[in-house]
Write a structure and sequence with these properties.
Helix content of chain A: over 70%
Order of helices and strands of chain A: HEEHHHHHHHHHHH
Radius of gyration of chain A: 24 Å
CATH class of chain A: Mainly Alpha
Number of strands of chain A: 2
Number of domains of chain A: 1
CATH superfamily of the largest domain in chain B: Periplasmic binding protein-like II
Structural class of chain B: alpha/beta
Number of strands of chain B: 14
CATH topology of the largest domain in chain B: D-Maltodextrin-Binding Protein, domain 2
CATH class of the largest domain in chain B: Alpha Beta
Strand order of the largest sheet of chain A: 1-2
CATH superfamily of chain A: MetI-like
Structural class of chain A: mainly alpha
CATH topology of chain A: MetI-like fold
Largest sheet of chain B: 7 strands, mixed
Strand content of chain B: 15-25%
Radius of gyration of chain B: 25 Å
Oligomer: heterodimer
CATH architecture of chain A: Orthogonal Bundle
Shape of chain A: globular
Chain lengths: 293, 448
């Protein structure tokens, strides 16, 4: 032991990394490379792919449906991330400052544990115009009926609301974990100085939560851009194309029309946009540095 | 320990490889027992076709049929993926809007030579069905069944509203005032105070039961509604069917029809699209929220079967300015061009298209088989269960009373474009004529 110098662990490290690296290469790297290749081909799965250069991209940029789906997705992300983050922040601070009941925390996670398709079906029945419970309730107050999924103005807020309902608990839990990192003495000191809860929230919780908040925002925003299942179950992109989000557009092109090349091009555009948005967010929120250090 | 487990693993993998090898050699061997893969999507029909497969196996002991069933959307995705992977089923069930892409990519075997050699009698099928699956002298399948449309109504409700069941057999329709069809719909509509749609005091903002339930997610064909009425108003979808390349959605006769549907909602006789339910029309009918709608013959068992909560009956479609027209659609069985067992597959397809199999299917009363005599069997099976479904068969047999839904390339894109255009017209974003004109230009651009 004393004679030998510290062992070089680098070779062993590769063995430990190998499972992840292989998995990444096989399940992410290779398909992504294939995707890039398909995006410059004309491919319908039934005949061999033929190289068409940038034609798919040129067609995509001129496609009003593509831009509409981008716009619709952005509207969804604003509605969903806005409401979800605000609600989750509120719930997390309540858990942090008011109660630390484990039962309550577990309950918050319940909607997140239900499969998305089930959530979609559940709300589809609850919110149905003719047979739904919610519209019956509105009716007793002399309101409605509201076509939650069939009215163009309501369809997207409805879908966003459903997903906010499903994910708020999970997001709140992440933020709550971040809040636990904040030293208790800061709150004690502030309380002695006579600061109220709202002042403490703005002066202590928010600034010190920033790196966690940034991470949660980035992750949930990427997730939000990928909205698909709720729409596939409830509105199927309708009415007209009021809820035709980008993922649904890609799905339709790929698996309904079998325009694999075109769909791949759209998917690559989406990946690029998400990359840029993530970089901007990380930068703006200085996510890699904490004020606690 | 370590060494032994390693040896065990090696043995195991050897066994796996040997097993794989055994499988592949068994398949290649000529003259030996053959297993054919056969795909369909309708779980209601699986049992009937299993009976066919058993009968076929008894007659041809060296051929076994393995039936796989997958739900509608999965079915086409699975099929396309399997074809791309070079491992498609030997025989599969085809439908009008999906099959053209398999024909144009050369995935379906031309069975005309087999049909000629075995002298298959094509006149035994319901008129025109066999021609749907031909292109330029080639044949891509034999017809297996057909469906037509009728009106379905809530019998108790209509009786309570004083609408005579016999009168429903002779309804007329026109796009201007809706004819006696609209009168019946108005009478069947009831507001919360119990007044019907013809009452001057009728409150269209508080409707309890809608006289008519329209279907707006109906693709490019309007099989479940507007297509039938537009056809009875003199509208034709395209220059020739199947394999037309010039659609005619800008025909004013179609726009008139859509406008009439729109007027039903405006009068409160039908739910407006933005206030419509996302649930299917049969669940709304079962909940007593609507009185009349269109129904395909594939819905017979839903409306007249044990699952129905209320009593329903069928009536013929209303006769329009050009008479009564119902959409007729048919399915076929096709052979994959890459199959290793062409002759055996043809034997199976021939059997599926023969009276031997179609009588079995007809006798179960699930669908109407393509062979006329087998259809009679299906009708008899329904009558035996006390279900009056004669109207579907009568409409199919009426001279000039049917039209085929379009079969062309780009079927799915056309479907989405036209459906969106009609929905935007119904929602009032644009007027019907200009929405349909624009959609027609987009649709026809797909064929350039």
């Amino acid at each position: 032991m004393s004679a030998t110098k510290p062992r070089d662990d680098r070779r062993a490290a590769w063995w430990f990394l190998a499972p992840v690296l292989v998995g990444f290469a096989v399940f992410y790297g290779y398909p992504a490379a294939r995707g890039v290749w398909y995006s410059v081909t004309d491919y319908n799965m039934l005949t061999t792919a033929s190289y068409v250069g940038t034609e798919n991209y040129a067609k995509l940029f001129a496609d009003a449906k593509f831009w509409n789906s981008m716009l619709v997705t952005a509207w969804y992300v604003v509605l969903n991330i806005g409401s979800q983050t605000l609600l989750a922040l509120g719930v997390a601070s309540l858990m942090h400052r008011l109660t630390r009941s484990v039962v309550l925390r577990a309950t918050l996670l319940l909607p997140w544990l239900v499969p998305n398709v089930t959530i979609g079906l559940l709300w589809m029945w609850l919110l149905d115009t003719n047979l739904g419970f919610v519209n019956q309730l509105l009716h007793t107050f002399g309101l409605g009926p509201v076509g939650f999924f069939t009215d163009e103005t309501w369809a997207m807020p409805t879908v966003a609301g459903i997903n906010t309902w499903a994910y708020t608990g999970y997001t709140a839990l992440l933020l709550y974990a971040g809040m636990l990192q904040i030293p208790q003495y800061l709150y004690e000191g502030a309380a002695i100085d006579g600061a109220g809860e709202w002042r403490m929230f703005r002066g202590i919780t928010l600034p010190l939560l920033r790196p966690v908040l940034a991470l949660v925002l980035v992750v949930s925003m990427i997730g939000s851009f990928q909205i698909f299942d709720t729409i596939a179950v409830t509105t199927k992109g309708g009415p007209v194309s009021a809820t035709q989000v980008i993922y649904y557009f890609i799905y339709q092109q790929a698996f309904k029309y079998f325009h694999m090349g075109y769909a791949a091009a759209a998917a690559i555009c989406l990946a690029l946009i998400l990359g840029v948005l993530t970089a901007i967010q990380m930068r703006m929120l200085r996510a890699s540095r904490s004020d606690l250090a | 320990m370590n060494r032994r487990s390693r040896a065990g693993a090696a043995l195991l993998s050897l066994a796996v490889v040997a097993g794989l090898a055994a499988c592949s050699t068994a398949e290649e061997e000529p003259g030996a027992a053959v297993t054919l893969d056969y795909w369909l999507w309708d779980d209601n029909q699986k049992a009937s076709y299993q009976q066919c497969a058993d009968a076929f196996h008894t007659a041809n002991p060296n051929i076994t049929i393995k039936i796989s069933q997958a739900a509608w959307t999965d079915y086409w995705q699975n099929l396309t993926t399997q074809i791309a992977a070079g491992d498609a089923p030997d025989v599969w069930t085809n439908q009008g809007s999906y099959y053209p892409q398999f024909v144009s990519s050369g995935q379906i075997l031309d069975i005309q030579p087999f049909v000629d050699a075995d002298k298959v009698d094509l006149s035994q099928y319901q008129g025109g069905l066999a021609d749907l699956f031909t292109k330029d002298g080639q044949r891509f399948g034999l017809p297996k069944d057909w469906d037509t449309m009728a009106l379905v109504y809530n019998t108790e409700h209509l009786k309570a509203q004083g609408i005579d069941a016999a009168g429903l057999a002779n309804l007329t329709w026109n796009p201007t005032d809706g004819g006696t069809f609209e009168q019946a719909i108005a009478k069947a509509t009831v507001d919360e105070k119990g007044r019907n749609g013809l009452d001057p005091a009728f409150d269209k903002t508080k409707v309890k039961v809608f006289g008519f339930l329209p279907e707006w997610a109906d693709g490019s064909q309007g099989q479940n509604g507007w297509g039938n009425l537009a056809a009875s108003n003199g509208f034709t979808y395209l220059d020739k069917n199947p394999w037309g390349t010039q659609y005619k959605y800008d025909d004013p006769k179609l726009a008139q029809t859509i406008d009439w549907f729109k007027s039903l909602s405006a009068k409160g006789y039908a739910p407006a699209l933005d206030k419509a339910s996302t649930l299917s029309r049969d669940s709304l009918l079962n909940a007593g929220k609507g009185a009349i709608t269109f129904a395909g013959s594939w819905m017979i068992n839903s409306y007249l079967g044990e699952g129905a909560k209320l009593k329903f009956a069928f009536a013929p479609l209303p006769a329009g300015p050009q008479g009564r027209k119902t959409a007729i659609n048919g399915l076929s069985d096709a052979i994959w061009s890459g199959t290793k067992h062409k002759d055996e597959s043809w034997q199976w397809v021939k059997f599926l298209g023969s009276a031997d199999c179609q009588n079995i299917v007809g006798g179960n009363g699930v669908v109407f088989p393509a062979i006329k005599s087998a259809s009679e069997k299906a009708l008899a099976a329904h009558t035996g269960k006390g279900r009056d479904v004669k109207v579907f068969v009568d409409e199919a047999a009426a001279p000039g009373g049917t039209f085929f839904v379009p079969i062309t390339e780009n079927g799915n894109e056309v479907s989405q474009i036209v459906q969106d255009a009609i929905q935007s017209a119904i929602l009032g974003q644009t007027d019907s004529a200009s929405a349909l004109k624009k959609a027609n230009d987009q649709v026809n651009a797909l064929f350039k």
